[in-house]
Design brief:
The chain has three helices and six strands.
């Protein structure tokens, strides 16, 4: 099942931008998260998370224009990998793309909310 942004949002090439804010990785995605972009994102983000132990990360999907099941799968995989490493990955924005009952994802409405969540828990995986 494809999840798309409203029709007035033109599809762009896929891009990933990773910045740090303090000890948190901010991963910003733009464009369609389908096909080859899924594999590229998975390899790139998993290696980046592995270099930050334990990882604290926010993935902003507000700029994603289209996401298929493989795209959702990469969000779940990277979230799981962050937890396995003793950290957390919180998904911000993009409610239009996610099923409200998407299990396995920590999803919040804004980047500010994601930072609040990470710092309130000390950035570690919740139990």
């Amino acid at each position: 099942m494809l999840h798309a942004q409203p029709a007035d949002s033109p599809p762009d090439d896929f891009s990933v931008r990773i910045r740090t804010r303090g000890d948190v990785l901010l991963i910003e995605l733009k464009g369609p998260l389908t096909g080859p972009s899924v594999d590229m994102l998975q390899m790139y983000v998993i290696s980046t998370l592995a270099s930050h132990a334990p990882p604290k990360a926010i993935m902003d999907i507000g700029g994603v224009t289209l996401m298929d099941e493989a795209g959702l799968g990469v969000l779940l995989t990277t979230t799981r990998r962050a937890r396995e490493a003793g950290g957390r990955l919180v998904i911000a924005n993009g409610r239009h793309l996610l099923d409200p009952e998407a299990n396995g994802l920590e999803h919040v409405a804004t980047i500010s909310e994601a930072f609040s969540d990470l710092y309130a828990s000390g950035g570690t995986a919740s139990t």
